[in-house]
Amino acid sequence: MKKQVTGKPRKHRLGSDESGMSLIELVVAISIFAIVMTGVAATLAAGLALTRTNQHRSVAANLASQEMDTIRASDFSSLVDRSVTQNVGGITYTIYRSLTWVAHNASNGPCDGVNTAPEVLRVHVGVDWPRRRGAAIVTSDSVITPPIGAYNPQTGHIAVRVLNRDAQPSAFTSVLLTGGTSRSALTNAEGCAFFAFLPAGTYNVSMNSVGYVDRQGTTSPTQIANVAIGHVTSAQFDYDRQGTIALSIEGHDGTEIPTNLPLTIGNTTLLPSGTRTYSGTGTSRTITGLFPSLDGYEYWAGSCADADPEGVDSNGTAYHLNGVRSPAVAVAPGSSGSGNVDLALLSIQVQNSNGTPVSGASIVTSHAPDARCSTGESYTIGSTRSDGTIEIAIPFGTWSLGILGRSVVGGPASTYLSPSSTGNSITLVLS
Q: Which residues form a coiled coil (predicted)?
Protein backbone atom coordinates (compact mmCIF):
# COMPACT_ATOMS: atom_id res chain seq x y z
CA MET A 1 0.00 0.00 0.00
CA LYS A 2 1.30 3.46 -0.99
CA LYS A 3 1.81 5.96 1.72
CA GLN A 4 -0.25 9.17 1.39
CA VAL A 5 1.90 12.32 1.53
CA THR A 6 0.52 15.31 3.34
CA GLY A 7 1.98 18.72 4.07
CA LYS A 8 1.27 22.35 4.85
CA PRO A 9 -0.71 24.36 2.27
CA ARG A 10 1.50 26.65 0.04
CA LYS A 11 1.27 30.39 0.59
CA HIS A 12 0.73 32.84 -2.31
CA ARG A 13 3.62 35.19 -2.90
CA LEU A 14 3.09 38.95 -2.99
CA GLY A 15 1.87 40.16 -6.43
CA SER A 16 0.80 36.77 -7.74
CA ASP A 17 -2.93 37.22 -7.07
CA GLU A 18 -4.63 36.85 -10.46
CA SER A 19 -7.81 38.53 -9.21
CA GLY A 20 -6.20 42.03 -9.72
CA MET A 21 -5.63 44.13 -12.94
CA SER A 22 -2.31 45.11 -14.45
CA LEU A 23 -1.48 48.61 -15.81
CA ILE A 24 -1.58 47.38 -19.42
CA GLU A 25 -5.04 45.90 -18.92
CA LEU A 26 -6.22 49.20 -17.44
CA VAL A 27 -4.95 51.19 -20.43
CA VAL A 28 -6.62 48.79 -22.87
CA ALA A 29 -9.90 49.03 -20.98
CA ILE A 30 -9.82 52.84 -20.96
CA SER A 31 -9.00 52.89 -24.70
CA ILE A 32 -11.95 50.65 -25.53
CA PHE A 33 -14.22 52.76 -23.35
CA ALA A 34 -13.01 55.96 -25.12
CA ILE A 35 -13.67 54.44 -28.56
CA VAL A 36 -17.16 53.35 -27.55
CA MET A 37 -17.98 56.76 -26.03
CA THR A 38 -16.67 58.57 -29.13
CA GLY A 39 -19.08 56.60 -31.27
CA VAL A 40 -21.91 57.27 -28.85
CA ALA A 41 -21.09 61.00 -28.82
CA ALA A 42 -20.98 61.12 -32.63
CA THR A 43 -24.33 59.35 -32.81
CA LEU A 44 -25.86 61.76 -30.31
CA ALA A 45 -24.43 64.79 -32.16
CA ALA A 46 -25.79 63.54 -35.47
CA GLY A 47 -29.17 62.93 -33.87
CA LEU A 48 -29.25 66.41 -32.36
CA ALA A 49 -28.21 67.96 -35.69
CA LEU A 50 -30.95 66.06 -37.51
CA THR A 51 -33.46 67.20 -34.89
CA ARG A 52 -32.39 70.84 -35.30
CA THR A 53 -32.56 70.56 -39.10
CA ASN A 54 -36.06 69.10 -38.91
CA GLN A 55 -37.12 71.94 -36.61
CA HIS A 56 -35.71 74.54 -39.02
CA ARG A 57 -37.40 72.87 -41.98
CA SER A 58 -40.71 72.78 -40.10
CA VAL A 59 -40.49 76.50 -39.32
CA ALA A 60 -39.39 77.25 -42.90
CA ALA A 61 -42.33 75.27 -44.31
CA ASN A 62 -44.75 77.30 -42.18
CA LEU A 63 -43.15 80.56 -43.33
CA ALA A 64 -43.38 79.46 -46.97
CA SER A 65 -47.06 78.64 -46.47
CA GLN A 66 -47.67 82.04 -44.87
CA GLU A 67 -45.94 83.77 -47.81
CA MET A 68 -48.17 81.90 -50.26
CA ASP A 69 -51.24 82.99 -48.27
CA THR A 70 -50.01 86.59 -48.41
CA ILE A 71 -49.57 86.36 -52.19
CA ARG A 72 -53.06 84.97 -52.73
CA ALA A 73 -54.58 87.68 -50.51
CA SER A 74 -52.73 90.54 -52.27
CA ASP A 75 -54.04 92.65 -55.13
CA PHE A 76 -52.75 91.03 -58.32
CA SER A 77 -51.29 94.22 -59.75
CA SER A 78 -49.25 94.82 -56.57
CA LEU A 79 -47.34 91.52 -56.71
CA VAL A 80 -43.59 91.95 -57.08
CA ASP A 81 -40.45 89.95 -56.42
CA ARG A 82 -39.17 90.47 -52.91
CA SER A 83 -36.88 89.17 -50.18
CA VAL A 84 -37.64 89.66 -46.47
CA THR A 85 -36.34 88.27 -43.17
CA GLN A 86 -38.21 87.00 -40.11
CA ASN A 87 -36.83 86.00 -36.71
CA VAL A 88 -38.29 82.83 -35.16
CA GLY A 89 -36.85 81.44 -31.93
CA GLY A 90 -33.67 83.48 -32.32
CA ILE A 91 -33.06 82.22 -35.87
CA THR A 92 -33.26 84.64 -38.82
CA TYR A 93 -35.06 83.11 -41.81
CA THR A 94 -34.88 84.69 -45.28
CA ILE A 95 -38.09 84.48 -47.32
CA TYR A 96 -37.94 85.31 -51.01
CA ARG A 97 -40.51 85.19 -53.75
CA SER A 98 -39.93 85.04 -57.49
CA LEU A 99 -42.70 85.76 -60.02
CA THR A 100 -42.42 84.58 -63.61
CA TRP A 101 -44.85 85.04 -66.48
CA VAL A 102 -45.33 81.87 -68.53
CA ALA A 103 -47.81 80.33 -70.93
CA HIS A 104 -50.39 77.78 -69.77
CA ASN A 105 -48.79 74.38 -69.11
CA ALA A 106 -45.33 75.81 -69.87
CA SER A 107 -42.43 73.54 -68.94
CA ASN A 108 -39.79 76.19 -69.66
CA GLY A 109 -39.22 79.72 -68.44
CA PRO A 110 -39.88 82.85 -70.55
CA CYS A 111 -36.15 83.28 -71.28
CA ASP A 112 -35.73 79.82 -72.83
CA GLY A 113 -36.19 80.99 -76.40
CA VAL A 114 -39.86 80.09 -76.81
CA ASN A 115 -41.68 83.11 -78.21
CA THR A 116 -44.94 82.56 -76.34
CA ALA A 117 -47.01 85.36 -74.84
CA PRO A 118 -47.46 85.18 -71.03
CA GLU A 119 -50.76 83.90 -69.70
CA VAL A 120 -50.26 82.95 -66.03
CA LEU A 121 -47.95 83.99 -63.23
CA ARG A 122 -45.70 81.26 -61.90
CA VAL A 123 -44.92 81.86 -58.20
CA HIS A 124 -41.86 80.43 -56.48
CA VAL A 125 -41.26 80.91 -52.75
CA GLY A 126 -38.07 79.87 -50.97
CA VAL A 127 -37.06 80.00 -47.30
CA ASP A 128 -33.43 79.89 -46.20
CA TRP A 129 -31.73 79.97 -42.78
CA PRO A 130 -28.13 80.17 -41.48
CA ARG A 131 -25.95 77.08 -41.17
CA ARG A 132 -28.18 74.74 -43.13
CA ARG A 133 -25.26 72.26 -43.25
CA GLY A 134 -26.23 70.83 -46.61
CA ALA A 135 -29.97 70.74 -45.99
CA ALA A 136 -32.09 71.88 -48.95
CA ILE A 137 -33.87 75.24 -48.92
CA VAL A 138 -37.62 74.85 -48.34
CA THR A 139 -39.57 75.86 -51.44
CA SER A 140 -43.19 76.18 -52.51
CA ASP A 141 -44.60 76.77 -56.01
CA SER A 142 -47.95 77.83 -57.39
CA VAL A 143 -49.58 79.39 -60.45
CA ILE A 144 -51.89 82.43 -60.44
CA THR A 145 -54.18 83.43 -63.28
CA PRO A 146 -54.55 87.22 -63.67
CA PRO A 147 -58.05 88.70 -63.43
CA ILE A 148 -59.84 89.23 -66.73
CA GLY A 149 -58.96 92.62 -68.18
CA ALA A 150 -56.01 93.13 -65.86
CA TYR A 151 -53.66 93.76 -68.78
CA ASN A 152 -53.91 95.23 -72.25
CA PRO A 153 -53.55 92.47 -74.86
CA GLN A 154 -52.18 94.99 -77.38
CA THR A 155 -48.73 94.87 -75.80
CA GLY A 156 -45.43 92.99 -76.08
CA HIS A 157 -42.82 91.62 -73.74
CA ILE A 158 -39.05 91.50 -73.14
CA ALA A 159 -37.19 88.47 -71.73
CA VAL A 160 -33.68 89.16 -70.42
CA ARG A 161 -31.26 86.33 -69.64
CA VAL A 162 -28.14 87.09 -67.53
CA LEU A 163 -25.28 84.58 -67.40
CA ASN A 164 -21.99 84.57 -65.50
CA ARG A 165 -18.59 83.72 -66.97
CA ASP A 166 -19.34 79.98 -66.69
CA ALA A 167 -22.49 80.43 -68.80
CA GLN A 168 -24.55 79.69 -65.68
CA PRO A 169 -27.63 81.71 -64.63
CA SER A 170 -26.85 84.82 -62.59
CA ALA A 171 -29.64 85.10 -60.00
CA PHE A 172 -30.78 88.25 -58.18
CA THR A 173 -29.09 90.58 -60.68
CA SER A 174 -30.80 93.91 -61.30
CA VAL A 175 -31.97 94.64 -64.86
CA LEU A 176 -33.13 98.14 -65.88
CA LEU A 177 -35.61 98.96 -68.63
CA THR A 178 -36.12 102.47 -70.07
CA GLY A 179 -38.09 103.71 -73.04
CA GLY A 180 -41.86 103.96 -73.38
CA THR A 181 -41.94 103.00 -69.70
CA SER A 182 -39.25 102.53 -67.03
CA ARG A 183 -39.03 99.38 -64.93
CA SER A 184 -36.50 97.32 -63.01
CA ALA A 185 -36.47 93.66 -62.06
CA LEU A 186 -34.23 91.07 -60.45
CA THR A 187 -33.30 87.91 -62.31
CA ASN A 188 -34.75 84.70 -60.90
CA ALA A 189 -32.92 81.44 -60.17
CA GLU A 190 -32.74 80.81 -63.94
CA GLY A 191 -31.07 84.18 -64.50
CA CYS A 192 -34.22 85.52 -66.18
CA ALA A 193 -35.85 88.93 -65.82
CA PHE A 194 -39.16 89.23 -67.66
CA PHE A 195 -40.89 92.53 -68.48
CA ALA A 196 -44.48 91.78 -69.40
CA PHE A 197 -47.20 93.82 -71.12
CA LEU A 198 -45.15 96.68 -72.52
CA PRO A 199 -46.45 99.22 -75.06
CA ALA A 200 -44.96 98.58 -78.50
CA GLY A 201 -41.80 100.58 -79.15
CA THR A 202 -38.05 100.73 -78.61
CA TYR A 203 -36.52 100.14 -75.18
CA ASN A 204 -33.05 100.20 -73.65
CA VAL A 205 -32.20 97.17 -71.51
CA SER A 206 -29.20 97.74 -69.25
CA MET A 207 -27.24 96.36 -66.30
CA ASN A 208 -25.69 98.45 -63.55
CA SER A 209 -24.33 96.29 -60.72
CA VAL A 210 -21.37 97.75 -58.84
CA GLY A 211 -18.15 95.87 -59.53
CA TYR A 212 -19.59 93.90 -62.48
CA VAL A 213 -18.68 94.10 -66.18
CA ASP A 214 -19.63 92.40 -69.44
CA ARG A 215 -17.16 90.70 -71.80
CA GLN A 216 -16.10 94.09 -73.19
CA GLY A 217 -15.33 95.44 -69.72
CA THR A 218 -18.41 97.68 -69.78
CA THR A 219 -19.81 98.37 -66.32
CA SER A 220 -23.26 99.41 -67.59
CA PRO A 221 -23.84 97.49 -70.83
CA THR A 222 -26.99 98.38 -72.77
CA GLN A 223 -28.91 96.61 -75.52
CA ILE A 224 -31.78 97.90 -77.64
CA ALA A 225 -34.98 95.84 -77.66
CA ASN A 226 -37.82 96.48 -80.09
CA VAL A 227 -41.18 95.39 -78.68
CA ALA A 228 -43.91 94.21 -81.04
CA ILE A 229 -47.51 93.47 -80.05
CA GLY A 230 -47.99 89.85 -78.96
CA HIS A 231 -44.30 88.98 -79.19
CA VAL A 232 -41.50 88.29 -76.72
CA THR A 233 -38.24 90.08 -77.51
CA SER A 234 -35.14 88.40 -76.08
CA ALA A 235 -31.88 89.89 -74.81
CA GLN A 236 -28.89 88.25 -73.16
CA PHE A 237 -25.96 89.56 -71.11
CA ASP A 238 -22.75 87.88 -69.98
CA TYR A 239 -22.11 89.72 -66.73
CA ASP A 240 -19.83 88.92 -63.81
CA ARG A 241 -17.57 90.44 -61.15
CA GLN A 242 -14.64 92.26 -62.70
CA GLY A 243 -11.04 91.13 -62.34
CA THR A 244 -7.66 92.84 -62.63
CA ILE A 245 -4.20 92.00 -63.97
CA ALA A 246 -1.00 93.34 -62.43
CA LEU A 247 1.77 93.51 -65.07
CA SER A 248 5.47 94.20 -64.57
CA ILE A 249 7.46 95.53 -67.56
CA GLU A 250 10.86 93.87 -67.52
CA GLY A 251 14.16 94.76 -69.12
CA HIS A 252 17.62 93.82 -67.81
CA ASP A 253 19.91 95.52 -65.35
CA GLY A 254 21.21 98.71 -66.89
CA THR A 255 18.69 98.87 -69.74
CA GLU A 256 16.67 102.02 -70.39
CA ILE A 257 12.89 101.52 -70.73
CA PRO A 258 10.41 104.16 -71.98
CA THR A 259 8.27 105.31 -69.08
CA ASN A 260 5.03 105.57 -71.10
CA LEU A 261 4.85 102.30 -73.00
CA PRO A 262 1.29 101.22 -73.86
CA LEU A 263 0.31 97.66 -72.95
CA THR A 264 -1.97 95.44 -75.02
CA ILE A 265 -4.04 92.45 -73.91
CA GLY A 266 -5.49 89.75 -76.14
CA ASN A 267 -8.67 87.70 -75.88
CA THR A 268 -10.85 86.52 -78.76
CA THR A 269 -14.00 87.99 -77.18
CA LEU A 270 -12.66 91.56 -77.26
CA LEU A 271 -14.27 93.46 -80.12
CA PRO A 272 -13.49 94.17 -82.87
CA SER A 273 -9.95 92.81 -83.19
CA GLY A 274 -9.53 90.55 -80.17
CA THR A 275 -7.11 93.02 -78.55
CA ARG A 276 -7.27 96.14 -76.38
CA THR A 277 -4.51 98.65 -75.64
CA TYR A 278 -4.05 100.59 -72.39
CA SER A 279 -1.90 103.68 -71.96
CA GLY A 280 -0.02 104.37 -68.74
CA THR A 281 3.30 105.16 -67.15
CA GLY A 282 5.84 103.27 -65.08
CA THR A 283 7.05 99.69 -65.16
CA SER A 284 4.29 98.38 -62.88
CA ARG A 285 0.74 98.55 -64.26
CA THR A 286 -2.66 97.34 -63.14
CA ILE A 287 -5.34 96.75 -65.75
CA THR A 288 -8.80 96.85 -64.18
CA GLY A 289 -12.37 96.25 -65.30
CA LEU A 290 -11.70 92.91 -67.00
CA PHE A 291 -14.36 90.28 -67.52
CA PRO A 292 -13.16 87.07 -65.78
CA SER A 293 -12.84 85.13 -69.02
CA LEU A 294 -12.11 81.43 -68.67
CA ASP A 295 -9.51 81.77 -71.45
CA GLY A 296 -7.57 84.41 -69.54
CA TYR A 297 -5.71 87.31 -71.19
CA GLU A 298 -2.47 87.32 -73.17
CA TYR A 299 -0.39 90.50 -73.01
CA TRP A 300 2.55 92.35 -74.60
CA ALA A 301 4.10 95.82 -74.77
CA GLY A 302 3.28 98.26 -77.56
CA SER A 303 0.20 99.17 -79.53
CA CYS A 304 1.31 98.51 -83.13
CA ALA A 305 0.49 95.34 -85.02
CA ASP A 306 4.02 93.92 -85.10
CA ALA A 307 4.46 94.44 -81.35
CA ASP A 308 2.18 91.40 -81.01
CA PRO A 309 4.41 88.28 -81.05
CA GLU A 310 1.62 86.52 -82.99
CA GLY A 311 0.59 89.56 -85.06
CA VAL A 312 -0.21 89.31 -88.78
CA ASP A 313 -0.34 91.92 -91.53
CA SER A 314 -3.29 92.75 -93.79
CA ASN A 315 -2.45 89.73 -95.98
CA GLY A 316 -2.46 87.37 -93.01
CA THR A 317 1.33 86.97 -93.03
CA ALA A 318 2.96 86.69 -89.61
CA TYR A 319 5.33 89.48 -88.63
CA HIS A 320 7.46 87.12 -86.55
CA LEU A 321 8.38 83.57 -87.51
CA ASN A 322 7.31 81.18 -84.73
CA GLY A 323 6.36 84.11 -82.49
CA VAL A 324 4.47 83.12 -79.34
CA ARG A 325 2.67 85.36 -76.87
CA SER A 326 3.26 85.08 -73.14
CA PRO A 327 0.99 82.51 -71.40
CA ALA A 328 -2.48 83.86 -70.72
CA VAL A 329 -3.20 85.18 -67.24
CA ALA A 330 -6.33 83.65 -65.70
CA VAL A 331 -8.61 86.07 -63.88
CA ALA A 332 -11.29 84.73 -61.51
CA PRO A 333 -14.38 86.83 -60.64
CA GLY A 334 -13.42 89.59 -58.24
CA SER A 335 -9.74 88.58 -58.11
CA SER A 336 -6.40 89.52 -59.68
CA GLY A 337 -3.77 87.82 -61.83
CA SER A 338 -0.21 88.86 -62.61
CA GLY A 339 2.43 88.56 -65.31
CA ASN A 340 5.76 89.89 -66.60
CA VAL A 341 5.92 91.76 -69.91
CA ASP A 342 8.90 90.92 -72.12
CA LEU A 343 10.65 93.55 -74.25
CA ALA A 344 13.18 93.40 -77.08
CA LEU A 345 16.71 94.35 -76.01
CA LEU A 346 18.89 96.52 -78.26
CA SER A 347 22.49 97.65 -77.71
CA ILE A 348 23.34 100.97 -79.39
CA GLN A 349 26.76 102.53 -80.09
CA VAL A 350 26.83 106.26 -80.93
CA GLN A 351 29.98 107.75 -82.44
CA ASN A 352 31.25 110.64 -84.51
CA SER A 353 32.31 110.21 -88.11
CA ASN A 354 35.90 109.80 -86.92
CA GLY A 355 34.91 106.86 -84.72
CA THR A 356 35.12 108.63 -81.33
CA PRO A 357 32.31 107.71 -78.93
CA VAL A 358 29.58 110.25 -78.20
CA SER A 359 28.37 110.47 -74.60
CA GLY A 360 25.10 112.05 -73.43
CA ALA A 361 23.25 111.28 -76.68
CA SER A 362 19.48 110.72 -76.22
CA ILE A 363 18.07 107.94 -78.37
CA VAL A 364 14.85 108.58 -80.31
CA THR A 365 12.86 105.47 -81.40
CA SER A 366 9.92 105.74 -83.80
CA HIS A 367 7.41 103.23 -85.15
CA ALA A 368 5.38 104.00 -88.27
CA PRO A 369 1.57 104.04 -88.06
CA ASP A 370 -0.25 100.85 -88.98
CA ALA A 371 -3.75 99.32 -88.72
CA ARG A 372 -3.57 99.15 -84.92
CA CYS A 373 -1.49 102.23 -84.02
CA SER A 374 -2.96 104.96 -86.19
CA THR A 375 -0.44 107.58 -85.02
CA GLY A 376 2.52 105.27 -84.53
CA GLU A 377 4.76 105.31 -81.45
CA SER A 378 7.75 107.45 -80.54
CA TYR A 379 10.02 107.50 -77.46
CA THR A 380 13.07 109.41 -76.30
CA ILE A 381 15.19 107.09 -74.18
CA GLY A 382 18.12 107.74 -71.84
CA SER A 383 21.61 109.00 -72.66
CA THR A 384 24.73 107.21 -73.86
CA ARG A 385 27.56 106.55 -71.42
CA SER A 386 31.08 107.89 -71.73
CA ASP A 387 31.93 105.07 -74.15
CA GLY A 388 29.01 106.08 -76.38
CA THR A 389 26.90 102.99 -75.59
CA ILE A 390 23.41 102.44 -74.21
CA GLU A 391 21.13 99.41 -73.88
CA ILE A 392 17.42 99.97 -74.38
CA ALA A 393 14.32 97.78 -74.08
CA ILE A 394 11.36 98.47 -76.41
CA PRO A 395 8.43 96.51 -77.93
CA PHE A 396 8.98 94.04 -80.76
CA GLY A 397 8.67 95.19 -84.37
CA THR A 398 10.39 97.47 -86.85
CA TRP A 399 11.78 100.74 -85.45
CA SER A 400 13.62 103.81 -86.73
CA LEU A 401 16.47 105.06 -84.54
CA GLY A 402 17.91 108.54 -84.31
CA ILE A 403 19.59 110.99 -81.94
CA LEU A 404 17.68 113.83 -80.32
CA GLY A 405 18.80 117.17 -81.87
CA ARG A 406 21.46 115.57 -84.09
CA SER A 407 21.58 114.13 -87.60
CA VAL A 408 22.64 110.56 -88.33
CA VAL A 409 24.66 109.62 -91.41
CA GLY A 410 22.25 108.13 -93.94
CA GLY A 411 19.21 109.26 -91.93
CA PRO A 412 17.45 107.35 -89.12
CA ALA A 413 18.58 103.73 -88.94
CA SER A 414 16.01 100.94 -89.17
CA THR A 415 16.07 97.81 -87.04
CA TYR A 416 13.78 94.79 -86.74
CA LEU A 417 13.36 93.26 -83.29
CA SER A 418 11.90 89.75 -83.10
CA PRO A 419 10.67 87.88 -80.00
CA SER A 420 13.18 85.13 -80.78
CA SER A 421 16.22 87.29 -81.58
CA THR A 422 19.06 88.01 -79.13
CA GLY A 423 22.20 90.10 -79.25
CA ASN A 424 20.54 92.90 -81.22
CA SER A 425 22.97 95.81 -81.77
CA ILE A 426 23.36 98.83 -84.03
CA THR A 427 25.80 101.70 -84.51
CA LEU A 428 24.67 105.26 -85.14
CA VAL A 429 27.17 107.66 -86.72
CA LEU A 430 26.57 111.37 -86.32
CA SER A 431 26.98 113.56 -89.37
A: none
